[in-house]
Amino acid sequence: MEGRMDAVTTMLDVLSGLDSVCTDTMVAIVNDRGRGYASDSEAWAEIRATLERVKEKLKDAEDCHKEMWKSIKSGDEDACSALCQQLYRELALCGQLGVQGSAMCRIAVMGEDAAKLMED
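Above: the chain sequence. Below: its structure as tokens.
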């Protein structure tokens, strides 16, 4: 049971960290844009573009994963290791895009109040 509690605690720590990163990302997005979203339609379009990038990167990750299996079956350990590193990068980018999309959603919910996130 102790191992399970450690895993739960770790996940809660990860979620807390993600929330903090999401908040920092919100500030960065608003500062970069100079404002929040002018409308729900604008927010939807921006979020849609991010979702499309996530889909692309997930497809790249899936392709890399398939290639890893091929290298495992052929006994090519060097290729498997290189593909695992590539898969790490693809999935890390998916995570980054996920945080970005989450931040965009939070900005959209804030409406005009998003401007308060801007740093002076």
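The CA atoms of residues 68 and 84 lie 7 Å apart.
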